[in-house]
C-alpha cells in the first residue's frame, strides 16, 4: 500500500522524468508486468536476488521490516555500496542510518550524505506527522517535555485492516432497519449493535477486536516498562530525527480508532518558558509549507481539523491551540495528518530525489 502511494506521488510529481532508469522488483510475481510509469517497463525482477539488487545505485523498498531484515544485511555483505531507502523500522535506530524527514532534518541528511552514510529510513508515522506539525516549537528550543495521545487510523496496520474496518462498519449497519427508524427505541438499536460485536461471524481476524464504533488502545508489541513499542518510538525517533544532545522526554498513549488513513494526535507540551500565543502560532506556521494553524473556534475546527478533510492531502493542520489551565507554560493542541503521505511515502520519495540530485 505504501508502495502504491509512493508510485502515485512520483507520477504526480513527474519524478520519472528520464533522469534515472527504474527497475521494479517483486517478492511474489517475478517476470510479471511492471507498473507503467512512462518508461519502458521490463518484467519484474526477483526482490530476493542479491545479484540483481546489487546492480542498482539506489534501492527503495516499501516491503516492510521482515524484507529489510532478510535482504539488507546480505546486500551489504556482498559489498554493495549503494543507497538503501526504506520506510521500515528495522534499520531506523542503527547508528549508521538516518531517519529521514527533510523539512525537519535536511541538514542532518546532507551531512550524512557527505559523511558516506548509505541507509536512509522513513520514520514512524505518528512521529513524522507530529514533527511536520510542531517542528517549529522544537526548532526554537521551547519544548521541555511532551505527551502525545494518538488516534491512529486503520491504514497504519495495513491494507487488510482498512478492509476489515469497512466490513465491521457494514456489519453494524446491517442491523434490522426498523431499529434505525427515528421512532424506534434508541436503546434497542444500541443493544442490537452490542450483540453484533459478540457474533462469531463479526470480522476481526486482523484487529483482534471490534474497531468500528469502538477503539483499541494498543498498537505494536509490548515493551518491558508497560509502554507499547509505538509509544516508545515517540521519544526514540523524535530525538534521533532532531539530533538532540539532551533527550527531550516524550510519552503518551497510542490508540487505534476507526479512521481510514489519517492519524490524529492530542498533544500536551510543557514549555521551558511562558511563550506568548502569537509567537507560538508564528513559529508553528512558518516552519514548513505544509503545516496549517487552524483557529481555535468550533467552525474552523470542525471544518478543517478532521481525518475526513485531510485524507489524501499533504497538509498538516494544527488546531485547538491554547494555554492549558494548568499554567502558562502548558500548551495543548490537536493535529491531523495523512498516515500514508507524510506518515510513510512522502519522506521516502523526497529522500530519493535528494540522493538523485
Ligand atoms: N505503526 C504505525 C501504526 C504505522 O500502526 O499506525 C507505521 O508507522
TrEMBL record:
InterPro entries: Asp-semialdehyde_DH_CS (IPR000319), Asp_ADH_gamma-type (IPR011534), NAD(P)-bd_dom_sf (IPR036291), Semialdehyde_DH_NAD-bd (IPR000534), Semialdhyde_DH_dimer_dom (IPR012280). Its EC number is 1.2.1.11. It comes from the Eukaryota. Keywords: Amino-acid biosynthesis, Methionine biosynthesis, NADP, Oxidoreductase, Threonine biosynthesis. GO terms for molecular function: aspartate-semialdehyde dehydrogenase activity; NAD binding; NADP binding; protein dimerization activity. GO terms for biological process: isoleucine biosynthetic process; lysine biosynthetic process via diaminopimelate; methionine biosynthetic process; threonine biosynthetic process. The active site is at 125 (acyl-thioester intermediate), 263 (proton acceptor). CDD domains: ASADH_C_bac_like, VcASADH1_like_N. Pathway: Amino-acid biosynthesis; L-threonine biosynthesis; L-threonine from L-aspartate: step 2/5; Amino-acid biosynthesis; L-methionine biosynthesis via de novo pathway; L-homoserine from L-aspartate: step 2/3; Amino-acid biosynthesis; L-lysine biosynthesis via DAP pathway; (S)-tetrahydrodipicolinate from L-aspartate: step 2/4. Residues 1-112 form the Semialdehyde dehydrogenase NAD-binding domain. It catalyses: L-aspartate 4-semialdehyde + phosphate + NADP(+) = 4-phospho-L-aspartate + NADPH + H(+). The keyword Isomerase does not apply. The keyword NADP applies. Homodimer. Belongs to the aspartate-semialdehyde dehydrogenase family. This is aspartate-semialdehyde dehydrogenase. It comes from Guillardia theta (strain CCMP2712) (Cryptophyte).
